[in-house]
From TrEMBL, chain A:
This is Sesquipedalian. It comes from the Eukaryota. Residues 17-112 form the PH domain. Pfam families: PH. It comes from Acanthochromis polyacanthus. Gene3D superfamilies: Pleckstrin-homology domain (PH domain)/Phosphotyrosine-binding domain (PTB) (2.30.29.30). The lineage of its organism: Eukaryota, Metazoa, Chordata, Craniata, Vertebrata. Residues 244-263 are annotated as: Disordered. Residues 253-263 have a biased composition (Acidic residues).
UniProtKB/TrEMBL annotation, chain B:
It holds the Pfam family PH. PROSITE patterns: PH_DOMAIN. One of its GO terms (biological process) is endosome organization. Transmembrane segments: none annotated. It comes from the Eukaryota. The lineage of its organism: Eukaryota, Metazoa, Chordata, Craniata, Vertebrata. This is Pleckstrin homology domain-containing family J member 1. One of its GO terms (cellular component) is early endosome.
Length: 263, 171
């Protein structure tokens, strides 16, 4: 199956946020050795290369439906990404406890599903908060976005996005995102104007997604919510922490040998 | 490269989204058959493909095959409505190349454009940051605190013009 590598490498090198990067040792299953790799975590993707800035991408792991486990059995400060029975497990080792912890934590919250649920939950809270605040709050100075008037650039942050034209707004100030205009449907209505203009459909830099109810949710369980997912991850974290505490005790008993084969 | 394909295959197997049923995996999946064309330097190749949207990837298949032919990462791309039934995806690194998708109806086309935009991880992240900031402004509370994830670098508020702080503690 072809995974368009250029798209991946472009995403890796673009200005969208890097969630974590650094050297890790990755286990080569064939000969059970560890090789040092430069790893970059961006969104739900774990890229790895020989060195930072390498043109060539050695691989990318899509962090969906995998468990992150501390695994000290064959190397110190090791952890693994477990995809389940019949599927490959990816094993890594860090140079110290702090690095290991940091990576495990970052990987646990990396999935698209996790973020998706979190956004849904916050979207809900946002609507509730708005309603509670009441319609008395004056935001009428900002008019609704009209899709036909705008040409948005669908990219991550960058200087170019500051050039997006907004009625009565400036993007150059404040660290706090400004209040949104009334959200309009992104999906094209029957207006012929929209098609003929060949507009790009993108998100306004500072605006919210369209209203909660409009998100297409084919196959999504409406009863599932972030709280449940959070509890589930809470269990994982709790379990991982207990494992870590246990391993800390055994670590002190362990003799001083080099467990990572760098040859 | 061979290595990437191999790794990705595991993801696909793990995702295991079938045509008939979406497993309770919390993966958003939409399926449709489209005419899928590559515009490349004035040449157009048109194929009929099954297209599946899974998280922030667009998989495409021959209509009678279970294994995808390929996958497109839906980040750093521009989605445009070309006409009533056609949309396109262009990636920022390949200005010359555009992928065109011809749908069966206007409605389907609209749904796809919408879904693809919302599938982007970066899009969701921006929304999260927006909601977080707004909820804090409206209620005085940080909604991520209750989940204990306020400090996660990936959810930090930025002013939109700066890069997020990079965590280089492991260097």
């Amino acid at each position: 199956m072809k995974l368009h590598e250029k798209i991946l490498t472009h995403y890796l090198s673009c200005t969208s946020p890097v969630d974590k990067e650094g050297y890790l040792y990755k286990k080569k299953e064939r000969n059970a050795t560890y090789q040092r790799r430069w790893c970059v975590l961006k969104a739900n993707l774990l890229f790895y290369q020989e060195r930072p800035g390498d043109r060539h991408l050695l691989g990318v792991i899509v962090l969906e439906r995998c468990a992150v486990r501390r695994a000290e059995s064959d190397a110190q400060f090791a952890f693994s990404l477990v995809f389940g029975p019949g599927l490959k497990t990816y094993r890594f080792a860090a140079v110290d406890r702090q690095t290991q912890e940091s990576w495990v934590k970052a990987l646990l919250s990396a999935s698209h599903c996790y973020l998706s649920l979190l956004v849904r939950d916050l979207g809900r809270q946002y609507e509730e908060a708005k309603q509670q605040k009441g319609s008395g709050e004056s935001r009428s100075s900002i008019s609704p976005l009209k899709p036909s008037t705008y040409s948005f650039l669908f990219t991550a942050q960058g200087p170019t996005t500051a050039a997006v034209v907004r009625e009565g707004r400036s993007n150059s100030d404040s660290t706090v995102l400004q209040a949104p205009p009334k959200p309009t449907k992104v999906v094209a209505k029957k207006s012929p104007k929209l098609w003929h203009r060949r507009n790009a459909y993108v998100t306004p830099l500072n605006g919210p997604a369209p209203l909660y109810g409009e998100w297409p949710l084919v196959g999504f369980d409406p009863l599932e919510d972030f709280r449940k997912l959070h509890d589930y991850y809470g269990q994982e974290v709790k379990k991982a922490r207990e494992e870590w505490l246990r391993s800390r005790q055994t670590e002190e008993e362990r003799s001083d040998e080099d467990l990572i084969d760098l040859g | 490269g061979g290595v990437i394909n191999f790794l990705f295959h595991d993801f696909w197997a793990a995702a295991n989204v079938s045509q008939q049923k979406v497993h309770a995996t919390r993966l958003h999946c939409a399926v449709c058959v489209v005419k899928f064309s590559f515009h490349f330097r004035c040449r157009t190749v048109v194929k009929k493909r099954l297209v599946k949207l899974v998280v922030n990837f667009l998989f495409y298949f021959r209509t009678d095959e279970e294994e995808p032919i390929g996958a497109l990462l839906l980040e750093q791309c521009r989605v445009e409505r070309e006409d009533s039934q056609t949309f396109s995806i262009a990636f920022l690194d390949e200005a010359e190349r555009k992928y065109l998708f011809e749908c069966d109806s206007e409605e389907q086309c609209g749904e796809w454009v919408d879904s693809i935009i919302k599938a982007s991880y970066e899009f969701m992240r921006k929304n999260l940051i927006f909601y977080r900031t707004e909820i804090h402004r409206l209620t005085g509370k940080d909604p991520l605190e209750q989940y204990g994830i306020s400090d996660e670098t990936r959810f930090q508020v930025s002013n939109g013009l700066q890069l997020m702080p990079r965590d280089t503690s492991s260097l």
